[in-house]
Design goal:
The complex is a heterotrimer of chains A (about 200), B (about 220) and C (about 180).
Chain A (H helix, E strand, L loop, with lengths): L1 H13 L10 H6 L4 H30 L8 H23 L1 H7 L3 H4 L3 H12 L4 H29 L11 H16 L4 H6 L2
Chain B lengths: L2 H11 L10 H6 L4 H24 L9 H23 L1 H7 L1 H4 L5 H11 L4 H31 L1 E2 L2 E2 L14 H18 L5 H8 L8 H5 L3
Chain C lengths: L1 H49 L5 E5 L12 E10 L2 E12 L4 E9 L4 E8 L13 H4 L7 H5 L8 H24 L1
Antiparallel strand pairs in C: 1-2, 2-3, 3-4, 4-5
Classes of the chains: A mainly alpha (about 200), B mainly alpha (about 220), C alpha+beta (about 180).
């Protein structure tokens, strides 16, 4: 139990996917201008991440590794993620139309979100077992959600600022991201410190 | 468009990183050293040129409905080939780039160029477009890598540049430094081409997921 | 007309998948040997850094005890020989630092003295913890034995990393003692 909690804390705060590992920067910068869209994107990514990790872990362990096919990993994983996102969209449209209206527009974006491919590959690369891999994916997704939420808040403050013309838009957003990333650096060692592992 | 124009377009006018702001993940993640930026850039260029050629060759064969999955399969094939070759012949670079070598698959520059250019143009022009875009990406990554390496560890391509007495500002090597340097670079580029907003909108036309992105719809970064 | 629209797209996609997979299989087969060679060469090169006098290295089976009291893990042992004579061993061990594992390679000669120490992998804070990995610090361990190496001072601001390095060296000596008993 302690291990899972430490893993969760580590993936959410210490090695945050966006702010420490630079995965999923495009949606982080692109979809964080409004709070509700940031939440929608963050939730969709979390759901897809957990499902995709479950699927790719099983495929990797039972189909790729036993036959020495791990060089096909990138190809298979991205196909699985693309298929999963399609499937999720169809299912949601049919059975949960309200949720589909809220999250639907973010789903097509997720296939090319490198956080999803990156986390699924890291989960098998680090040799995690099935349950830890799922917790790892959940933590990464929640970390993404947290970064999106915080950053949407930071950006709403930027809206009313007087910024030099050359820095308006993307440059200023990136420098704000730099400050948020610096704040997250303060978490390094927290998980190890609490659980002394 | 003439051949030369197509080639130079990606390097200067529509530089994928500094003007179009695409492929941000590898731009930030691997540029702690100039040599890593260069290696990442060249690997991406190789994939981009090959996938542009193949997709342009197959543009009449691939049905519209399975366009995107087909592109993804072709691109990830080339990515795996490049990473296998790098593992065999450039092991140090392979280890330095790590996960981000596989993540070339989801680099939106590559899928974007396939969709925007290779699917509509001749093989030769697609190849030039891939080379131009790839070199533009490489140049930007090497530049950012150089700045971060010189300030962050006082070296450039491994050579000592700053005197040892000046202690390097290590924050440049960490995540915040990456965002900061990238932001400043775009600001410098903006300073010189502030008036042409048209390009930014073109940028988003490259992105396969334009439909879902706010920037794409509102035409503003 | 409609029928071809149903059949053709999946067919083309399947065909593309098959061709790409076949191409990958070929490239994989071709690069298999160079990748193996590059791997061994890299492993040998890093062992040679720690045992400059050796001309051959061979991997040994790990002894029964691999974890020290402090939790450091012994990961691999390579036997170094020169002219057919064993001159020492290169131990790879890991211990927890400030953020994540610190992997250390440590050469120990037949007299039980450290030939050289190198941190091969770490994720410590650059500028603080990473100072421990610099030769200025690791060279202090040259010629030390199990006791003197544990008594070397840590670096200010990098206490956790210094401790991790010493714990990993402790794991290397644990392996050395077990090998020396057998010989």
């Amino acid at each position: 139990m302690e291990f899972y909690f430490a893993l969760l804390l580590d993936t959410i705060l210490v090695s945050n996917v966006v702010l420490a590992q630079f995965m999923g920067i495009c949606p982080f910068l692109g979809v964080s201008r409004k709070l509700d869209s940031a939440v929608g994107m963050g939730c969709s990514v979390t759901v897809v991440l957990v499902l995709a990790t479950a699927a790719t872990w099983v495929i990797n362990t039972y189909f790729l590794l036993p036959y020495g096919l791990d060089y096909l990993r990138t190809l298979i994983f991205i196909l699985v993620i693309a298929a999963l996102v399609q499937l999720l969209e169809i299912t949601m449209k049919k059975y949960l139309p309200a949720l589909h209206r809220a999250l639907g527009i973010y789903l097509p974006l997720i296939t090319t979100n490198c956080a999803v491919l990156g986390v699924t590959i890291s989960a098998v690369d680090e040799g995690l077992d099935f349950l830890p891999a799922l917790v790892f994916a959940l933590g990464s997704g929640l970390g993404f959600l947290l970064a999106m939420l915080l950053f949407a808040g930071v950006r709403s403050k930027l809206e009313n600022c007087d910024i030099p013309p050359a820095f308006r838009g993307m440059p200023c957003t990136l420098i704000a991201a730099s400050l948020v990333a610096m704040a997250f650096m303060g978490f390094s060692g927290v998980a190890d410190g609490i659980f002394s592992i | 468009m003439r051949a030369k124009e197509i080639f130079l377009n990606g390097i200067v006018k529509e530089n994928p990183v500094l003007v179009l702001v695409l492929g941000t993940c590898p731009t930030l993640a691997v540029t702690t050293m100039a040599v890593n930026g260069l290696g990442m850039g060249l690997a991406t260029t190789a994939v981009l040129v090959c996938s542009n050629i193949v997709i342009s060759l197959l543009k009449r064969v691939i049905p519209n409905q399975v366009r995107i999955p087909s592109y993804i399969v072709i691109i990830s094939g080339f990515v795996t080939i490049v990473s296998l070759l790098m593992e065999a012949y450039a092991r140090e670079l392979y280890q330095a780039l790590g996960l981000f070598l596989s993540l070339i698959v989801v680099n939106c520059i590559i899928l974007g160029r396939a969709e925007m250019f290779a699917a509509k143009n001749s093989v030769f022009h697609s190849m030039l477009d891939g080379a131009g875009m790839g070199l533009g990406f490489t140049l930007a990554l090497t530049l950012i890598g150089s700045i971060r390496e010189i300030f962050g560890s006082g070296t450039w391509f491994g050579l000592q540049i700053l005197p040892e007495a000046i202690s390097p500002v290590t924050i440049f090597l960490l995540a915040p430094g990456g965002f900061f340097v990238f932001g400043c670079m775009i600001a410098v580029v903006n300073f010189f081409r502030r008036k042409s907003d048209r390009l930014v909108r073109n940028a988003c036309m490259n992105c396969p997921s334009i439909g879902a992105c706010q920037n794409g719809r509102e035409g503003e970064f | 007309m409609k029928r071809t629209g149903m059949v053709k797209p999946p067919l083309v996609l399947t065909l593309i998948c098959l061709i790409v997979t076949a191409a990958l299989a070929i490239v994989y087969q071709v690069t298999l040997t160079p990748i193996q060679e590059a791997k061994t060469a890299a492993a040998e090169a890093s062992c040679r850094e720690l045992m400059p006098d050796a001309d051959a290295f061979s991997e040994l089976v790990l002894p029964t005890e691999t974890t020290t009291d402090s939790g450091a893990q012994l990961l691999a042992i390579s036997e170094a020989s020169a002219g057919g004579q064993t001159i020492g061993w290169v131990f790879t061990a890991a211990a927890s630092g400030y953020s994540g594992q610190v992997t250390v390679m440590c050469g120990i000669d037949c007299d039980g003295l450290v030939t050289r120490v190198k941190i091969s992998e770490h994720t410590e804070t650059p500028g603080l913890g990473s100072k421990v990995a610099e030769p200025d610090y690791t060279d202090q361990f040259i010629g030390a034995d199990a006791e003197t190496s544990a008594a070397i001072d840590g670096i200010t601001g990098a206490t956790f990393t210094s401790v991790a390095l010493k714990e990993a060296i402790g794991a290397a000596f644990l392996g050395y003692q077990q090998i020396a008993e057998v010989e």
